[in-house]
Amino acid sequence: MNHGETLRKKIESGTARVGVLGLGYVGLPVVTAFSGAGFRTLGFDIDERVVHRVKRGESHIGDVPARAVAAVVESGLLDATTDFGRLGEMDAVIICVPTPLGKTGDPDVSHILDALGHIRDGLRPGQLIVLESTTYPGTTRELLQPELEQGGLTAGKEFFLAFSPERVDPGNPVYTFTNTAKVVGGLTASCRELAAGLYERVIDEVVSVSSPEVAELTKLLENTFRAVNIGLVNEMAVIADRLGIDIGEAVEAAATKPYGFMRFTPGPGLGGHCLPIDPQYLAWKMRTLQYRTRFIELAAEVNAEMPRYVVDRVAQALNRHRLPLNGSRVLLLGVAYKPGVGDVRESPALDVIELLRRQGAEVSYHDPFVPRLAPEGGDLESQPLTAELLASSHATVVITDHPQVDYDLVLEKARIIVDTRNGLTRQPGERGEHRDPGGATLYPLSGPPRGTSAPDLEPVAGMDPGRGEAIPFDEVARRYRVSAGDQP
Ligand SMILES: NC(=O)c1ccc[n+]([C@@H]2O[C@H](COP(=O)([O-])OP(=O)(O)OC[C@H]3O[C@@H](n4cnc5c(N)ncnc54)[C@H](O)[C@@H]3O)[C@@H](O)[C@H]2O)c1
Looking at the 3D structure of the chain, how many domains does it have? Predict the structure, then answer.
């Protein structure tokens, strides 16, 4: 029996041992799915804390319930290790390591290379190696194949090599690893069939394509499509503002068209580990072929400008109430890059915080999923969302529309609200009409404000000519005998 046939039998009988390299947002759901389907699995990670947590049956990824990890750890189907010497015990190895950008904006494939070094050391006939990390077209054939063949084994004969992009959507309660179709491209027909056969054991639908390059480009097409369309709708928000129109309302109306339009919502910018980064992998690859990816560049430029647009919007809103950004207390609601998750990687909130601070604003935030922001966020801690916090903040800015936030309280107590997600006053299914913003003046991402209860203030907090220092707003309020609680 040849090596492929032996492996196919192991996969079909569920006796193949599956190793997953990198136990993060992608790797933990993968290893849990295979162990949950009865495969004996071993997770590999360089981070000892991650390995210990998995070994204890805990989950560090929001989408993977701890009870699911605990169940497979208890049944002996899932174990984790930092000992890469054990990779040779695996029949299939799935690589889920990070693929960030380097300092110059070029692909950083060092984690893949590191993983490959370990796999190569233990590579034996009959192993299947699958790369899931997002990367540029050509990686599997140009990088993985020569690296792995260095030991003398041939891909497609002695060992098998495929690319299958991960499509996990963190926080999505409907589409998970197992019910999202999986694209698989193998180096040879047997590589493709073995990889597809493996995923068919845990995934409802497997889509085989003719090569790893097609699978690699598929992932980049999907994410570039999103990045470009978000860039388009973000530019539409800027255009709408110049026209004095609420873009949110226009998007809602356009989305009623049953064909030829797909709803993308504008916001404070792109975030997460995928959309701001993945298209740059394609742009880099095309630069090596003397081709400029114009849509990618333009979308990246528009999306990268959005945090600045948001800060300008906050400054305009405060200005309308005769308050300067300098010295104002600005509360951000949500700092994660999307609703329902605690991931702040590449989150536009980080840029918004930095830009606000540069202009002298005192920034605080509330995010039910992010208790603390690391140094790039200024070492801030999430504040409990209280009536006092809202009332004492000069402006409240919705950056991430987490459904877990008490927006009724926000509408009741906040004074100036800038809603970059345009969802705050809309009832589900409602179009055209908006909920009353209560005591607040609400600024959507573009267009005129709604609600006018906040009065314009006569004095402006500014420099004390005597002391040469900024006068805090509270002091201005006291000097002019205005209750700070009544003011934005
Ligand atoms: N997060 C997503 O939503 C998502 C979706 C689709 C695709 N992807 C892609 O999947 C890949 C992994 O992303 P992620 O979000 O899971 O990253 P992550 O940072 O959440 O997890 C990566 C894990 O790999 C470990 N690691 C790093 N180098 C390693 C090595 N050499 N050997 C073993 N482990 C190593 C890290 O310690 C970490 O635990 C990336 O290419 C990403 O673009 C991510």
Answer: 3
